[in-house]
Amino acid sequence: MPGASYSLTELVQRFGGEVRGDAQVRVSQIASLSSAQPHHISFLSNPKYRSQVAQSAAGALIVGRDLGDQFECPRIVADNPYAYFARVSGLFNPPPAAEPGVHASAVVHPGATLAPGVSVGANAVIERGVLIGANSVIGAGCVIGPDAHIGADCLLYANVTVYHACEIGERVILHSGCVIGADGFGLAPDQGKWLKIPQIGRVVIENDVEIGANTTIDRGALDDTVIETGVKLDNQIQVAHNVRIGAHTAIAACTGIAGSARIGAHCTIGGAAMIFGHIEIADHVNISTNTLITKSLPKPGTYTSALPFSEHSEWLKNAVQMRHLDSLAKRLRALEKKLEDGEK
Amino acid sequence: MPGASYSLTELVQRFGGEVRGDAQVRVSQIASLSSAQPHHISFLSNPKYRSQVAQSAAGALIVGRDLGDQFECPRIVADNPYAYFARVSGLFNPPPAAEPGVHASAVVHPGATLAPGVSVGANAVIERGVLIGANSVIGAGCVIGPDAHIGADCLLYANVTVYHACEIGERVILHSGCVIGADGFGLAPDQGKWLKIPQIGRVVIENDVEIGANTTIDRGALDDTVIETGVKLDNQIQVAHNVRIGAHTAIAACTGIAGSARIGAHCTIGGAAMIFGHIEIADHVNISTNTLITKSLPKPGTYTSALPFSEHSEWLKNAVQMRHLDSLAKRLRALEKKLEDGEK
Amino acid sequence: MPGASYSLTELVQRFGGEVRGDAQVRVSQIASLSSAQPHHISFLSNPKYRSQVAQSAAGALIVGRDLGDQFECPRIVADNPYAYFARVSGLFNPPPAAEPGVHASAVVHPGATLAPGVSVGANAVIERGVLIGANSVIGAGCVIGPDAHIGADCLLYANVTVYHACEIGERVILHSGCVIGADGFGLAPDQGKWLKIPQIGRVVIENDVEIGANTTIDRGALDDTVIETGVKLDNQIQVAHNVRIGAHTAIAACTGIAGSARIGAHCTIGGAAMIFGHIEIADHVNISTNTLITKSLPKPGTYTSALPFSEHSEWLKNAVQMRHLDSLAKRLRALEKKLEDGEK
Fold first, then answer.
1. Best mutation site among A127, A238, A286 for testing chain B: the one with the most B CBs within 10 Å?
2. Are A123 and C107 in contact (CB under 8 A)?
3. How many Å apart are CA C41 and CA C90, to the nearest integer?
4. C-beta of residue C254 within 8 angstroms of C-beta of residue C275
């Protein structure tokens, strides 16, 4: 189903940049260089793929200023071609429309309040005291617990769970299977058993946050767990109780953040990173994939602890020495001392 | 909505300990030192936060015996102030009440049996042959598969899935998105393809277990997967088929336990640990965050394999040497030998 | 509930192999050596468990050719006893039968098409444009998004989510909580914020794939994410956008695969492995548990990067040296040079 088409002139009127070549070419979808057809606009953000342009059937191209003069085809030259591509794609691919209204099979408690334009999908459940802001979409099978508040223009895909009393801002996207506000892992040891500590804080998610599929964000023990404005979380991330994640931080899949950690703003955290609890990470920190952060990081920078892989037989020989590093260091020191003594 | 209030005298009558200062002070909620108001009781389990007490507006305090005489404010002195805090918080914050009865939108098979006081939430599904014990709460959207048994006083939050024939004890808490009893990963290689091995064991969960959001516990291949009494599992833990986890063991988020591993009782396992299959771990073992356990641990103790992080540029220089440790060790040995020979 | 019983003669007529001992013994279920009763058939694929056979009450045994003459009991001798066991177990334990038809509480859009024999469970939701092939089972609480296609003879357990337009082949098994087709993590940095890149590709899952509980497979950014024929994915695996996993590859739980990685056919990947994006892994590669693969692997083989664990006190001493490996290597080189110079 082809959508509306736009000429390059119309695109630069909306999003800036400038056209080179035929400005009347019309495009209606984004595609990669290799699969693009004449009604597609493609993009080149990395010069190393430059050679693919000649083979591409794309009707037009988005390129950076550095590459603006290297091609003949109709093209838009932009300062940030990848961001430009994102905006054009957003124009061509708006989020799935949902009919406003409550599906007949959904269960909305009479004590819940839905603003105009809200859509509640089939078999969704909205408990008492819930507020849902204008035009938000609650997908099929979602369960929104008592007294949870969801702002305007949110999009909850199917089978999302929001526990009681959580607060979600505007334009928040929650993907399927994510669980917002389950109890934090609060236990007091008592004579060989564990006493449960009631988790009475909430989860507070600010505006423009996106949370991936099957990600879990636990409610606070006493105070709240907070996800600040513009944070983007990938799938299967675990955020423990009382964590705070600073604005516009992006975290890749499978990462875990232990209780009461405070992550700064504008950080990037690679996949499968693990962050200790009760530590503080500065703004503009980058943490590499598979990295374990065991203490506070007061300064911006990139931090890593990934072990390099090798062929298994090589690995076996090296790994055994990892258990002897202290001894290796001592033997080295002893040799150094012996030679120093010999020289004296 | 403020709950019932209790004087300090009433609290020690219930939970032991002794009051110092004004015993008639009434409190109705727990709070952290920094956010407490006069109707709150706070606690101090770690002496390093002692200086925060003077600034706190808390109406009363729970402290350990060592700190009992260091403050003037109304306070309860307890042997284990953190456990005391857990009990008081449990009094102030009972689990969410659920109205007994089956919601009109829930689907309960006529061949299922619900004891008195059971609550079944909206759009939950209870299949044939299911037994649910007295006063258990089945949250909205839960699906309880055929012939599964759930004991009394359990609390299943929304969107929990329990597969057929699983057995769940009393006072068990299951958080949203957890999946109990999916097939274990049993495959037989056969001429370049994989044959599925039917997983005909069950999951058996004993009493007083709590299982976190999106945690998965697979059913046994032939015999059962067993989670013993009082085990506490955090979010996004994977427990493979035929694992047995001993009583009162606590496991932090994102940990994975491979098939047929046997974990002892009273163990603690840090987040994102990985435990090999077919190994046996003794009681009272502690496993650190991010640690990979590759063989049996017959003795109590703390075990670790986490790689320390560093700034990326530092890490690059050190990581390259991790691939040469065997060679480093051999060169060191050669030097030692050369010096020994020289001395002779 | 005992199922149908089969004599050993009947089993070899179906599955090949040859009987030794009493061929008329009838068995009706599979069991492990230790729990087997006389109506059970057990198996021995690993000679090290040979001594358990004498104690077992099993009515019959499946053994390999190497062990065929070592026992007296009724037995089937097979080339691949583990695969034989899988086939016999499949005969005794067919997948749970589901009554064809749409449960009264399910919501099926009038614009969806269900082939004959399809079963749709309670409170499941099938959106417009969906096609479901003959005899497929859609479990309770599943949500199948608009225009998704599901082939014949599939089995979706409860609470599975399939996003719009995804394509699923025949005989595919999806376990509870898995999410197929959520948006990939596509973000363009723009002046300190993140712009969402619409994810307009699909997930395409070919025939005979099995996907574990709470596993997530993201839809492609522009082109599709593809899971080829016969792939087996365990629980809590994360597959990012535009990944391709080659035919008959098996991946254990908790593994993450970053965007646009291409995994070959017939690979095995251990639990909690992490695979970088935009890399290519050859056919027949084995990746060990907890291993991080940071670059393409053009050759078959086994690759590993797991750090060996030790007692915590030992680990502390060795771990500190991991931060000094570069310096250790330089000091070693200096010593070698000093000795070489001395010899000259």
1. A238
2. yes
3. 13
4. no
